Automatic annotation (TrEMBL):
This is 2,3-bisphosphoglycerate-dependent phosphoglycerate mutase. Belongs to the phosphoglycerate mutase family. BPG-dependent PGAM subfamily. It comes from Erythrobacter crassostreae. Pfam families: His_Phos_1. It is an enzyme of class 5 (isomerase).
Amino acid sequence: MPKLILVRHGQSQWNLENRFTGWWDVDLTDKGLTEAKAAGALMKDKGVLPTTCFTSLQTRAIRTLNLALEEAGRLWLPVTKDWRLNERHYGGLTGLNKQETRDKHGDEQVHIWRRSFDVPPPPMEPGSEYDPGADPRYDGIDVPYTESLKLTIERVLPYWESDILPVLTSGETVIISAHGNSLRALVKHLSNISDDNITGLEIPTGQPIVYDFDDNMMPGERYYLKDS
Ligand SMILES: O=C(O)[C@@H](CO)OP(=O)(O)O
């Protein structure tokens, strides 16, 4: 039975500092490193071991994957990295402190920017401090200036259909190490969650989520590996 494992990267430096992160490339904290290793130990304990891997182009997700694989004894697995699994782009909010932004713009406005389905944050100024546009890892890619969840879904789902689903269908156990909002996009699709209800879904860091697929490639209920 094909199995899909989703893991959100461990705590990042800007998760800790409560800053809007998006495409900015921050690393894991010590807690994040521990969470990533624990995810790998859990996979090993439960005997749920990936056979192929996908991740974003962002250090926090790549390192989480590597640490988890090392702990599970599977550092040798093939890994595909793709920008379409990146976090949603936080536009002009990137780098700002979330509490200070609430104090300035109000709780409601910040909630809309963070969790509405289709309202993107204000766009980033091209060439500004946290614009990743000139980063060589994005050569040849139209780096966005902001993204709502809806826009994130519009790049995650085509990649899921074209590159990940066929591998899963061939019988592999796939792990995707990614981000709060790129994983929210996938869970919304796989668990058939409405545009309104997706705002309430929070994906914890470093906690593997599993979907078992049936013979027709229909996903079952998602569950946390720790609860299985
Ligand atoms: O800052 C971000 O990029 C994301 C994920 O950490 O935050 P939010 O919870 O606001 O989607």
